[in-house]
Design a protein that fits this description.
Blueprint (H helix, E strand, L loop, with lengths): L12 H13 L8 E7 L5 E11 L4 E6 L3 H9 L1 E8 L4 E12 L2 H9 L2 H9 L9 H15 L9 E15 L7 E6 L8 E5 L2
Antiparallel strand pairs: 1-2, 1-4, 2-3, 3-6, 4-5, 5-6, 6-7, 7-8
Helix pairs in contact: 4-5
């Protein structure tokens, strides 16, 4: 096992990830929980976009979206994804690769209910990733949905969470003269133990 200390110290990579995110929350100006989420479509063409991570659990990394969106369809089709968190103020990043499952139960209901009313209505109104004729058409749909759903809309059946259950997590920190520090945690399956190695910059 690679010897680690300082910011890399810990016996659980998810604990280290939570600690780094907590530190970033104190220094990043906007969206310290922003992640670049990578998926692949059925033709093998990669896709990447920024989304907001909502939780780092013991079981993985959780975010929410429209299941009918491009990312939702790609995640359902392949069951695999990767993400990157990068913090300029800390000069660190975390890379994750793993298996994907839906979070479509009470946890998703609770998060949906915590969002602003406008965001909850927007989730109903937006056919995410589908063609849109104009912004006016979208706003008209929001108005219609508002009249239909009122002030306490339930979570749409097409909207919920995804959890990336990691098989690989890499922690990277900037080093002088581009001699960066990199440690990667790998396992062949979720029930297996993590193997930790130091990587060349």
């Amino acid at each position: 096992m690679a010897e680690r200390d300082g910011i890399f110290k810990g016996e659980n990579p998810l604990d280290i990830a939570r600690r780094w995110l907590s530190e970033a929350e104190a220094t990043e100006i906007n969206d310290p929980n922003a992640i670049a989420l990578a998926t692949v479509d059925t033709d093998g063409m990669p896709n990447v976009r920024m989304v907001l991570l909502k939780e780092i659990e013991d079981g993985g990394f959780v975010f929410y979206t429209n299941y009918g969106s491009a990312k939702g369809q790609e995640l359902d089709a392949t069951g695999k994804a990767a993400l990157v968190m990068h913090w300029k103020t800390l000069r660190r990043q975390i890379r994750v690769r793993g298996l994907v499952e839906r979070e479509d139960g009470p946890q998703a209901d609770e998060y949906y209910a915590s969002r602003s009313l406008q965001s909850r209505l927007g989730a109903w109104a937006s056919s995410q990733s589908q063609e849109l004729s104009s912004r006016a058409a979208l706003m008209a749909k929001v108005t219609k949905i508002t009249a239909q759903k009122g002030v306490n809309p339930s979570r749409p059946p097409f909207w919920g969470g995804f959890r990336i259950r990691p098989l690989e997590i890499e922690f990277w920190a900037d080093g002088a003269f581009r001699l960066h520090d990199r440690f990667v945690w790998r396992r062949d399956a979720e029930e297996k133990s993590w193997q930790i190695v130091r990587l060349n910059p």
